[in-house]
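Need tokens for this chain, all 164 residues.
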Amino acid sequence: MADVSHTRGDVSHTRGDMTSHPDVSEMRERYARMLGGRDVALMDGPLFLLGLYCAASPWIVHYTTGQPALAVHNLIIGIAIGLLALGFTRAPERMYGLSWAMSALGVWMIIAPWIVGSHPNAGVIANNVVIGGLAVALGLLCAGASAKAAKTSTPKLQDRPRTL
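Here are the structure tokens for all 164 residues:
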């Protein structure tokens, strides 16, 4: 049988405690910064799926021939929602300031059937109101979490270095 105890010579490489690492405070700060914008990580996926549904909804609800302008509109707005969601995933610390834009897109989706469409039926209106309501709700949740994260990440007045 082979000896697997790793007690011979230099074969054993034991790991030391990380608290003795010279850059431990910098590594902890970097880790906290990286995770700081991920308070709403669970909303990125639903937002992306909402954008996909919005883009595909004219074909799902079958109003591409009756409302061609609204079909193109929903396709474009759905792509925009999906791209914002991907941006939230890729660079959360930069993109969560745009959470209010998601809410604005949601409000626009609610009123769009009467502005972009021509005599929309109840199915088209319900489709856009549900999409818009979800976009407003998720956008407000993202904005609230972003504001909370920004509030906790800004240094207090006594912690800031003093300059003359």
